[in-house]
Design brief:
Blueprint lengths: L2 H5 L2 H26 L3 H20 L4 H19 L3 H25 L5 H8 L7 H20 L1 H9 L1 H6 L4 H23 L4 H15 L3 H25 L4 H30 L1
Helix pairs in contact: 2-7, 2-10, 2-11, 2-12, 3-4, 3-5, 3-6, 3-10, 3-11, 4-5, 4-10, 7-10, 11-12, 11-13, 12-13
Amino acid sequence: MSVWQLLQTSFVQNAFYAVTAVSLAAGVVGYFVVLRRQAFAAHAIGHIGFAGAAGAVLIGLSPVWGLLAFCLGAGLVIGVAGTDLDDRDAVVGVTLTAALGLGVLFISLYSGYANATYSILFGQILGVSVSDVWLVAALSAVVVLASSGVFRPLLFASVDGQSAAARGLSVRTMSIVFMSLLALTTVVAIQIVGVLLVFSLLVAPAASAEVLTRHPGRAVVVATLAALGSSWLGLFLAVWIGGPVSFWITGLASTLYLVARVSAALRERGRRVAA
C-alpha cells in the first residue's frame, strides 16, 4: 500500500484530526507552562493521570475517565496549595508520589490484561476512533476558549503575581484556572504521545516560541504552529517511514527547540560583533 493510500485510511485521518486538536490546546497552555516555570507540574500531572487510568480499568470504566478525574483532581490540589513558588514543587512532588502509590495498588489488584492502561504510557494515536476524536476535539475546544477568555488576567498573574494581587486579581484563582486547563490539555495530549512523552509536546514548542519572540500573542501563535508542525510531520513520517508516532513528534519538537536556541545564540553573537 502506498503512502497516499495509507493517508486516505480512516484511522490515519482520525489521527490527523486528533493531533490537530491536541496541538491547538498544547500550544496555548504550553506557553503558560513555560512562562510560569511549571514544567515539573506538567510532567507530574501526566504520571498522576496514569494512576487514574489504572483505577478506571480496575472498576471497569474507560481509562480516559480515570485520566480526566485524576488529572483534574491533581490540578485543583496543586492550584490551591501551590500558589507560592516556594511551596509549588513540594506540593507537586507529594501529589505525584501519592498518585503513583495508588497506581501501583490499582495495577496489583487488577487480575486481567491491562493493555488499555499500558497503552496510555506510550500513546495510541493510530488507534483512536471517531468517538475519541470528538472527545479530544471537545476538550481541546474548551481549553482554547477558556484560555482566550482568561488570557490577559492569567498573563498578568503569571508575569507579576504581586502586582496582580495588589490590583485585586486573585492569584490563587488564576492558579486554579491554569492548573485545570493544564490538566485537560494533559488528558488530550496523552492520547497522542502517552504519559511518558506528554511533557515534550507541552513544553518543547512553547520553549521554542519563548526563545524566538518575547511578545505574548506572537509566542502563543508560534508555539501553536510549532506543535502543529511537529505533530503533522511526525504523523506523516510514522506512516511513511514507520516507527512510533510519539517518537517522531517528540523528536521533531525537541529538534525545533534546539534549532531555535542555536539561531538565537547566533543572532546574539552577531549583534555583539556588530556592536
